[in-house]
């Protein structure tokens, strides 16, 4: 394995570097007396890092790097795109990024992260990345994908998405991208808030939608997945349809409850219970995500509507249960009073009846 990264400097004596066409080599040419003194024989640098026949070190180093390192282009350099980029850079992959707007100075953000930023998608694609990751808002994915100049990419490029819904990008990739491209749908089930202390033990779901049979394609996909494995994620292979069923119950529900609680403007108290603290951290974990993201979870997962309805029904049923209980208590009190009233009446009336209507004073 090539371990050296020292630049090789080759030094060639000047006399040996004179070509055959040089007048110094041609016996038929008469040499004129030099007007200046001939410089002493010196050593001159003729080439730096030029590959020489038999110089396998650079070649092997290059092959080694290509077999382990990836050139990853992130399309959509928002909150989550930047979050992913940090870890890709940490793993020594070369990371490029593109974002539709320059409302924020993304190039500055990128530079700090060690990412090469492009304002123009054509320039990004001309870099021939191994992997292109779509990391845009769910709602914008279709227009972004259709506008990408994919003809400038290599034919075997691996397309990955990290959208929080899965059936939608799967279908879109199959519809829009050329058949030569490899397709991998993934969902890291965490974000900048929930994974601020690392990715260890967090779930990462993927479906290999279309990966070419060649060894190089399979290994490129595995190298990409390996990043999440090395970070300690629980990497789960699952179909996109199954993901959406589970995610509507778990993720969409979490975000919905988090957003409802956020509207209540809950505040920490001096006597927080553990449960209440969990609620506060749920608000923290969900409120920084864009509404665009939440809307995408609702709109682009066909199972979300059903979950929303179940949530309303559950709330209604709980309310009924509470109010029903309250009603029972009130009614009981009401009737008890009435019954108590009736029985005292009885106590008054009974002696009267016993004495054939004649009024007999009660002893009480
Ligand atoms: P987001 O609001 O879902 O997406 C923001 C990104 O989308 C930005 O790059 C934004 O560009 C771009 N975008 C928005 N509207 C666009 C449009 N009309 N045309 C082109 N680009 C547009 O927030 P995010 O948290 O960064 O999420 C990005 C993706 O990652 C989403 O698909 C989300 O489902 C997925 N994801 C997020 C998390 C998370 O925890 N945040 C976790 C897993 C997966 P501008 O900066 O120009 O607005």
UniProtKB/TrEMBL annotation:
GO terms for biological process: tyrosine biosynthetic process. Keywords: Oxidoreductase. Pfam families: PDH_N, TYRAAT1_C. GO terms for molecular function: arogenate dehydrogenase (NADP+) activity; NAD+ binding; prephenate dehydrogenase (NAD+) activity; prephenate dehydrogenase (NADP+) activity. Residues 70-352 form the Prephenate/arogenate dehydrogenase domain. PANTHER family: AROGENATE DEHYDROGENASE 2, CHLOROPLASTIC, AROGENATE DEHYDROGENASE-RELATED. This is Prephenate/arogenate dehydrogenase domain-containing protein. It comes from Stephania yunnanensis. The lineage of its organism: Eukaryota, Viridiplantae, Streptophyta, Embryophyta, Tracheophyta.
